[in-house]
Amino acid sequence: MKNKDLHRILLKGGVTSPGELKDIISMLEAVGLSEVFFGSRQDLLFPLPSTRSEELEKTTTYNTDIISERSYQNIVCSYVTADIFDFTYWLKGSTYLYLLEEFDFLPKLKINITDAKQRLVPVFSGNLNFIASNEEDYWYLYIQLPNWNKLAMYPVLIYSWNIVAVCKAIEEIYPSIHDINQLFALLNQRLQTNNKVIKEPLSIPFVTFPYYEGINRMGIDQYWLGLYWRNNRYDIQFLKEFCAFCLQNGIGKICITPWKSFIVKGIPKECRSELEKFLGLRGINVRHSQLEMNWHLPVEDAKAYDLKNYLVKHFNSNDISTYGLTFGISNDVGKRSHFSSIIIEMNPETRLPKGFKFIPSYNVLHFKNFDPNTGVYEIYAQEVDRSQLSSLLMELSKNYFQQLYTISEKTSDEKPKNVAKKNQVYQCQNCLTIYEESVGDLSQKINPDTLFDNLPDEYKCSVCSATKEAFLKTEIQF
């Protein structure tokens, strides 16, 4: 089955509520489906004859968009990462939700709304890529329209509450637009927007790919859960029961990731043990190796899935670490919208004379510095046999770690020598975690420059949960 043959349910930003998802699952169950897939653009995918799509829409009580063709696109956003991974200081989960709510139309262009400080959601995989700046409520905009050859930066920062208007205007005029200057001029004629001058260029830090599975601490009294199925076949019955669990325990949002997994944030501390019991009774594994989880495959592609299993098996048997790296398998040679560090292209089958057997071959590419945000592809090998792939990928993994080591050494050499500064901090006496007033504690929504004495009485160590009284004032050198 090809990806284009699947129906889609567009969930803006990959964000849904347990009630909405349960309704969708019941709707799919009613037409005889037993499983659902997640897509790269944080949408739901499922096979269904087009004649039955209207039947589905009549059974849902939510405003669910069921798409049977590829002309409309889901909005991608990094709401899923807010408050659990590194984030730009002003960009809270509520900001994403307000923005997504503003979209009152189905876009035909791919729109990404992301934070450059995270790695789980691709930054530049859209046609319109809004990336949070350090100016509160302002975004860089990088554009690559379908008829453009390369990515271009919009010359001003876009105000949060102008994003929808800008997207709508571009949708209306983009087929006749050939470059960024023409687009900028036309939008200025059409729109009254609260733009800002770009004071500094976009800087995207290199961030290693996170481990996104299991039950993890979120702030003081909440947890987040990541769940992953290696075959991207999510059992409808399990999803329905999980939605019911979320509704019973006041859990408000479920988020689909572009890596075909899902994350649930804001799980109350008091229901953690019940959640562990719920997952255990259903035999749900929440401790996959990162060797399994850092792969991006086409939906329902048996050959790609078989190739991934073959390569992971070789990595395991050779004790190869791929921490921070990601891999993608593509059956679309020449496609340039990947977001994995390393890409394995499966070359198409060719017709051979009778009696000759086709032998699959592969191309291996990677992004410059193994960073997908560079947008620069480098070819490592072409037309190689399957038996050569694992050794080539292991070589690339070693190159990646050597690069990290080199960058680390260079950064160390650039630091001033023999200069020691003293800084007063508060240190947990149980686990030696440091609270520095100038930094704050974003994991617990404590802003920078918050004095220790002004921390709430219920403040706890973000690592060991020790109370505020466990912290003692001390001096460190750096």
Number of strands: 25
Q: What is the third-level CATH name, the topology of the largest domain?
A: Sulfite Reductase Hemoprotein, domain 1
CATH architectural designation of the largest domain? 2-Layer Sandwich
* Quaternary status: single chain
Average pLDDT, rounded to a whole number, is 87
Characterize the structure shown.
This protein has helices at 18-30, 53-59, 93-102, 163-173, 180-190, 236-248, 272-281, 290-293, 302-317, 386-414; strands at residues 7-10, 15-16, 35-38, 44-46, 65-67, 76-77, 111-114, 128-132, 138-143, 152-153, 156-159, 196-197, 214-218, 222-228, 234-235, 254-256, 261-268, 295-296, 327-330, 342-346, 362-367, 377-384, 422-428, 434-435, 471-477. α1 runs antiparallel to α6 and α9 packs across α10. The chain contains ten helices and 25 strands. A hairpin with a 4-residue loop joins β16 (254-256) and β17 (261-268). It is 26% helix and 22% strand. It has four domains: 3-197, Sulfite Reductase Hemoprotein, domain 1, CATH 3.30.413; 214-289, Alpha-Beta Complex (Sulfite Reductase Hemoprotein, domain 2), CATH 3.90.480.10; 292-414, 2-Layer Sandwich (Sulfite Reductase Hemoprotein, domain 1), CATH 3.30.413.10; 422-477, Rubrerythrin, domain 2 (Single Sheet). The protein is an alpha+beta fold. The strands form five sheets. Strands 6, 7, 8, 9, 10, 11 and 12 form a seven-stranded mixed beta sheet that branches.
